[in-house]
Write a structure and sequence with these properties.
45% helix
Amino acid sequence: MKKTDEISSTEKLLHVIRNRDETSLPESKEVRDDFIDREFKPSFFTVVPFKKKLTLSITIGSQDLILVLLSRVSDQDVSLLDHDKISFTPEIRKDAKQFSVFLRSAIVRFLGSRKPDYVWSTIPSVKIETRFLTIPKVSFSQIPRVAFFTFNKVNPVSEEGLIFDFEVLGEVSQGGSQKLELFAYTAVSKEVEQIRKLFHHIGLPLTGISIVPFAMQNIFRSRLMGELPANICTLYVGKDWSRIDIFSKGNLVLSRDIKTGINSIVEAARGRIDEKAVRDETEKNDQDPENQEFLKNIFRNLPDNEAETDEKENAGSLPDSGLLEIVMPVIRRLVRQVERTLEHFSVNFDQEPVGKIFITGDLSAHPRIIDLISRQLNFPIDCIDLFTAGTLRVQPGRIPESVYEKDSFAPAIGLAVSSNSRTPNLLYTYLQKGIHNRIQKINQYVFFTFLAVMTACSGFFYWQDHAMKKKQDRIAQLNARLESFSPLVEKKLILQMISVLESKRKATVSQAESSLCLAMLSELSRKTPENIRITGMDAQLIRNPSDPVRKKLLLIEGLVFPGGSSPDADLAVYLMKLGESPVFKQV
């Protein structure tokens, strides 16, 4: 077991190398009691569709807090509004109340009066198990089950205490059949719940929780760095471990953790320093400027080759002439891991080699080490710079000066361009996505049904309105004709019309009287049956001058022959038929 002073000396050594100033936590009295209710009260303007959405990303490191605020309309319109890095003592536990007070105080000071629409944070990726899988092409509802079965077959896991999620990358043809490529991962639900409760407690609910590799994936997917090769490798070198991530066409397809880190290089360098002297100086709070300056210059003055080592030794710039020989085995071990990973990717994933390598983490502050790794790999290595290269809009006065500072903000910026559609979210897994998709389908059905009813009602209303307009136009035409018609009503004109009508009436009556005999004979012939024979007729049609009413009289004589019934009955029927005739009356 290591002694306490040995651990402290390593931490102090790392602190001096990183050249960071530790800042103690602020007192809790700096945070007002009404912080939650006043600072993060929802606003109507956060849901206005044409308003630029603000995204706040928060990455919590071992001893610093990185905050980034972005304004994003699309991948081509991303503006960095503000960014900040706040240090804190690494001994503080993340679940301690003091850290919660520090966190919300730092966020309030950072945001001011601005209110973010989305809030994202990360959890450590050390305990995240990731796998690139190829599964048979199945129905959409069967993908989660097949994905979990395939993941569990490659990396057996227990469902209890773990969050399983996956992202479908696309289709691929293998062996003449279509298959699905997906990237699956598991996370410890306890850690996710811990970070969720932390932000919920300070009154700032999280939109999503992800990990740094997925934040880097956002950078490549959104093309914040412009056009890059199809296959990219990122090498993160941390304090105790390192991680190699390979992205193909913007998708994370391979992630590998290795144990080599900054501490490996530091411990190798400390082998030439008297441990007792370092312990003694550490207990004195590192008051010796000579030792501090030496530790700060370990990486900066690292020689590029042995010839330079001899020159520096002769010049007396470094007290240890074998520093390169001490550090190189660690670097070679790191390089071998990178080479094996790249070879594994070329053989099992894509025949096209990696076209770009980026280095991130604490090692980005030491260009000499980066140059050594680059020469060992025989491949150029760059640091991620989103401030001066790419499509991100940044205020000129807000660009960090050092490469290390620019690199340290890269994961937070990548996290700030997250969205549930392209960023794996531990708070929004395939289960929540399935529920959301079902709700969306129901909403679509309701919407389209409502749209169909509205269309039918609109069509009926249009038809009724068109018919009403036609009738109104007809009424208007008739009213116009009525208004234009103005007959001349005079007594003389009326008398003339009466005279004309009287003349027409007399002519009609005269014509009727002249045709009366013919009408009577026609009616008699039509009404008289076969068993009745008319033997004589006497018609009196001349008006008697003494009689005011003109009477027309017709006398008929005839014989009734036996028929189907009695003669009296036939005669009665005959008389009734004559009575029904409009020519004869009072028969």
